[in-house]
Amino acid sequence: MSGTLHELRPKSGGETEKITVNLGYVDLGHIDLLVQDGFYSNRTDFIRTAIRNQIERHAEAAKRSVERKSLDLGLRHYTREDLEAARAAGQVLDIRVLGLATIAADVSPELARAAIGSVSVLGALQASAAVKAALADRTR
């Protein structure tokens, strides 16, 4: 398979996923105070820093979990050629990624169902809506 694995730590806006976080007013006020006093450039900078600090704090446990669950770490891209090769070899892929998994835009829903047995992505899965729908019963 020609799928490439990359270590990934997003830096630019195009490589990030937007999430929504609900915070209490007092917590939000504390963040604004720290931003106002120059500790962080904005709310997003504070939140990203806090998340990275927690990830670092639990790095060993996360590493063991990644190994135990046999997760690919980072970016994993599946091309039409990858899936056709798996199907031709009689293999069914189990996609397990911590980070970003992408399935090429030219992959048909039929090919995805024939070549992919399960999908478990901790992070984000990027694929066409039709491919996501075709794999919905195989996605955890």
Automatic annotation (TrEMBL):
InterPro entries with a match to the protein in the record: RHH_8, Ribbon_hlx_hlx
Pfam families, alphabetized: RHH_8 (PF17723)
Protein name stated in the entry: CopG family transcriptional regulator
Top-level taxonomy: Bacteria, Pseudomonadati, Pseudomonadota, Alphaproteobacteria, Acetobacterales
